[in-house]
Amino acid sequence: MRHAFGVPGGEVVTLIDALQAAGITFNLTRHETSAAIMAAGASTISGNPELLVTTVGPGLANAVNGIADAVQERVPLIVISGVVDRATRARYTHQVIDHAQLLRPLVKASFEVEPESAASTVMRALAIATTEPMGPVHLDLSPAVAASLSSSEFIPKAPKRFITPASVTDPGVRLLAERIRASERPLLLVGLETARNQAGPALQHLAETIGAPVVTTYKAKGIIPEDHPLSLGAAGLSPLADKILLPLIEKADLVLAFGYDPIEMRLGWLDFVTDQTKLVEISGAHADHSMHHAGTWISADTKSLLQALNGSLVERKTWPSHEPAAAKAALDRVFSTRDAWGPHAIVDHLNEAAGTDGLVTVDSGAHRILLSQKWRAATPLSLLQSAGFCTMNAALPLAIGAKVADPARRVFAVMGDGGLEMGIGELATIRDLGLPLTIVLFQDRSLALIAMKQASAGLAPAGVALGETDFAAVAIGFGGYGVNVETIDDFRTELEGAYHRPGFSLIACRFDASAYDGAF
């Protein structure tokens, strides 16, 4: 843990001072929900739990949406909130609420830190947060405890953890290998857990050995390069993609779900196989859901199990009628770029500018669904988003957290005008932290996704039109660079300029919301 995000208050000033002394940088944000999502972005890039710091009462209450996001995005977030000293807690009421009760539905555990057991409590919190499925843990800390000395000099250290690799002799591996050998149409369905386990090379080897197409969730995009012939990209929220992918999955005679978490999927993925015996689920943790029912469930580290399988299988041909290739071609057709300017073309040229090393975050909205389907991710965890909770205004704090954790990497935040207006104050955070981020704004003057849902239900548009904010001027007012573009040549020029600029850049891409009609 090296990064903390939050908004200070009187109850946490001693904690913030101690964090600095311990080498954990405290980053001031403009809102606690944004701070929680920044910590999520940093955690994804660092691979470690990161820290949210809030003050008592309204400070923690402000963070609830960000903590809920951490639950559904499987982020090992440590939440430390200031709390009124125990000596006055029963009498004093100003800003006092029951923090643990407030967060009870959202956190894996909640503890109050005491001097005698502070180190052990923190170690327990870290262990709980990082156990699959990962999630947030809450700690209350009073000013008196923060300023006191522990009565014990014992500081526990995290135990060395060993994951015993699965072997070709394990019963579960033997069973699975036999199922694969007997299969003529195997398919791999892959989720975030496998991407976080850095299992991409092992997964790609298995897919190539048995000729299995690979479908991922949005957050597992890039687990194998998406220009690979066996990659069918991601699924989650697109009816157009579902019309192609779900029939293919139904034709498969064996579906191997590696670290797959249905929290990212739409209702069309309820019971996505009619014959549950052909579905095998492999995961380090059994998620609490009834979205689907697997005939076989194997509790295992996905990476080690993949490696064991690769040691027991030989290359062979499957899918004799070549249905996966036909599905890949169909997906390319439905998400092909239709016009010289608009959301499709913007995604194409941003994909080109990001290259194989860039990191992109994307906010909720119509642009997120199109980008998540059309984007070609070369590496895992290079496209970050709120895919389970789908909260608005996630892209900007995710980008800030990612850039703080990896300053050398080029980071882009892709947002809609509605999302940016929700969290526009964090432009000041980017300025104050001196982060050279590039914000690509899809400005269609509409909550386009909601408008599309209204239209599909036969309803008139209501509450979805947005006025035309001059975001370029806003960016300049916050100390950055801002520009409005309406052609692909201007967009390409501004992307190149942003690469060489020391501060943040905001490129507002203006087009009509009708460009999304039939897009996903």
Automatic annotation (TrEMBL):
Keyword presence, Transferase? yes
> What EC number(s) has UniProt assigned to this enzyme?
2.2.1.6
**What Pfam families would the database entry show?**
TPP_enzyme_C, TPP_enzyme_M, TPP_enzyme_N
Q: What class of enzyme is it?
A: transferase
Q: Which positions fall inside the Thiamine pyrophosphate enzyme central domain?
A: 175-309
| Protein biosynthesis is among the record's keywords | no
| Ranges where the Thiamine pyrophosphate enzyme TPP-binding domain occurs | 363-508
Q: What is this protein called?
A: Acetolactate synthase-1/2/3 large subunit
Q: Which organism is it from?
A: Rhizobium binae
Task: Name the lineage.
Answer: Bacteria, Pseudomonadati, Pseudomonadota, Alphaproteobacteria, Hyphomicrobiales
